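#struct-pred

JT: dropping the chains for the assembly here, can someone run the whole complex?
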Amino acid sequence: MNQTDPAGELTREVLDRIEGAPDARLREVLQAAVRHLHGFAREVSLSPAEWLAGIRFLTAVGRMSDDQRQELILLSDTLGLSSLVETIAHPVDAATDATVLGPFYVPGAPWRAAGDSIAVADPGGSPCVVRGLVRGASGPLAGAVLDAWQCASNGLYDVQDPGQPPGNMRGRFRTGDDGSFVFRTSRPVSYPIPDDGPVGVLLRASGRHPWRAAHIHVIVSADGHEPVTTHLFDAASSYLDSDAVFGVRASLVKEFLAQPDGSTLVEHDFVLRAA
Amino acid sequence: MNQTDPAGELTREVLDRIEGAPDARLREVLQAAVRHLHGFAREVSLSPAEWLAGIRFLTAVGRMSDDQRQELILLSDTLGLSSLVETIAHPVDAATDATVLGPFYVPGAPWRAAGDSIAVADPGGSPCVVRGLVRGASGPLAGAVLDAWQCASNGLYDVQDPGQPPGNMRGRFRTGDDGSFVFRTSRPVSYPIPDDGPVGVLLRASGRHPWRAAHIHVIVSADGHEPVTTHLFDAASSYLDSDAVFGVRASLVKEFLAQPDGSTLVEHDFVLRAA
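RK: done, full complex below.
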């Protein structure tokens, strides 16, 4: 032990111990994690009582997490980590910006025909049409897939709400020969993320609200291209500047235009990178 | 969004959002945690697949943690964080060095008389005597308390082993008028930390073993003084240079001296700081 800097010496000892990890990438990630974890504790002089409070908080987060409620992903979302990982993964270019997947995606949404509505059961919803193109570098992409999902007008996703049939507010659509798509839904509403667990406690202690800006989720994919996981945000929504999970990208905020029949129309082209 | 550094802009947005936390210390700790968490992800360009692997790992750690098995503390221990927090909390001075508490402490150990053995049921153990003084800045401390615990010679603590009576290998002792203590036990053995969970998976992936150097745990306390949570390590033990939880301090490694009757004797004075 170097008695002049025992904390720094301890950190070096831990890093040395991981030096033998057979997988080079695991070694790199784990050593960086240790440096930042120790750096954090040293920087704030984390006390034993604070360490224990952190252990208890993270244990509660882990114990609440299962297939139905992933509280740890919610923690990652509310600390901006999920959004950051998407930002790191995708260069800034002409392609559609990615944003967070969120905890409510369900693979295998019903296939629907162009023009159909995903709002199978949403009597309180305000009708809305979404349309546009899916494009690659060389033009519109026929047969591309939009996998869309959102909450109903009560602010709940089907998987949170026994009153909704499975697959409500979800659907997969293929673009036509001209690369176009069109589907109907309800105009999205703002909703609070689940805040009855430890993440809710942390949000309140941080002086933060749990609301997300109104949005429609979409994963867009096409042969020979990178899929993109993204949102369309309603430009009229509250919380665009304080979305609880830091999912807003300026390029994804769209005007929902009032139509003569009382519905709204939002138009957006999705641009995919070649794989 | 500043398009020249969207990741950095996102980190600043998260830090700003926490600016309203009413408690100044929570704000400081949380902002430092966010800076290091984001710094880690940016430094290694954490991919979405790696992020998900991390979420799954930490969820498994949290779900395995309960009153009997605290896998998250084990993770903190094996990453050196628990030891670091102890190191940060205590200045380097003449007082006894602190080290990790570990997961096997049980409050309320049986009170025993000077000279008694804590090895109530350890037929395979090698007899050992532990003796010394508890001192403060102004000399020996009468009526100080040693709360001692260790594993039996099969490498298991009573709480892990239905074959041991509760309180086996545990005891509380008071120093006499001259500040001295003496108790008997079994010479400690090396043992592996529980490695059948996700922490064991991480140790193996890191090329590390799960063994702890042989030690006796002690919490020493006295009126008007800071208690110290520490170990006595056997200088003849393996793993002193690779203790799985980074608990070894050079000042705590002691010779266990062979006695004519076949037992061993270890002598150590504990020095407490004034409160």
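JT: nice. The CA atoms of residues 109 and 167 of chain B lie 6 Å apart. The first helix of chain B runs from residue 6 to 18.
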